Amino acid sequence: MSLSARQDPLFGRSGAGEFSPPALAAVLQAGAPEIAFAHLLGSARDGKLSSGADVDLAVWLTAGEHDWGTLSRIITLAEDCCGVRCDLGVLNHAGVVYRFEALRGRRLFVRSGQWDCYGDFFSRTCFEHEDFLWRLEQHRRLRRPGASAAAACRDFAAKAARL
């Protein structure tokens, strides 16, 4: 199927259905050796598809070229296995919120020899997400009516002293 057809919003099944996440993991492990680990996220993470659903797949790619051909091949593998459109996210270059959402999803697989990489990704993502939430709260505090920058600085100093 051509790439233009794959980008058509009508591609894939029109009704609800299911697919096998373990089968998707096996297909990706066999057909895409550059994937170090993969996660399913979104509404289809448990293999159940609602009408018009797609599969949200997040992958960490090993070192090397991450060209359109590689990404297209991964998308094709997932779409052929699941029968619906695949939205692919590359975790190597993703923001902290997307990375955390991937961790909240379903881990499909981690290749043998990539557990250290996965552990680094996991711990760094959790640390950065916690920091992001703290900064977001500080931003919200400053935007409240009557909030002062001095109070926010005191809160920051108190938190830093606890570290």
Description:
A 4-stranded mixed beta sheet has the order 5-4-2-6, with helices on both faces. Strands 1-3 form a two-stranded antiparallel ribbon. The protein is built from 6 helices and 6 strands. It is elongated. It starts with a helix and ends with a helix. It has helices at 3-6, 21-31, 68-82, 96-104, 115-143, 149-162; strands spanning 17-18, 35-41, 48-49, 55-61, 86-90, 106-110. It has 163 residues and is α+β, with helices and mostly antiparallel strands. It has one domain (3-162): Beta Polymerase, domain 2. It is 50% helix and 17% strand.
Sheet/helix structural class: alpha+beta
Number of strands: 6
Q: Which percent range describes the beta-strand content?
A: 15-25%
What is the CATH architecture annotation? 2-Layer Sandwich
Q: Note the gap between the termini.
A: 55 Å
Q: How many domains is the backbone divided into?
A: 1
- Along the chain, the helix and strand elements come as HEHEEEHEHEHH
Mean pLDDT: 85
- Using the coordinates shown, work out and report the CATH topology: Beta Polymerase, domain 2
CATH class: Alpha Beta
Over the alpha carbons, how many angstroms does the gyration radius reach?
A: 20 Å
Largest β-sheet summary: 4 strands, mixed
Looking at the chains present, what oligomeric state does this protein adopt? Answer: single chain
Helix content class: 40-55%
- Enumerate how many helices there are, as a single number: 6
Strand order of the largest sheet: 5-4-2-6
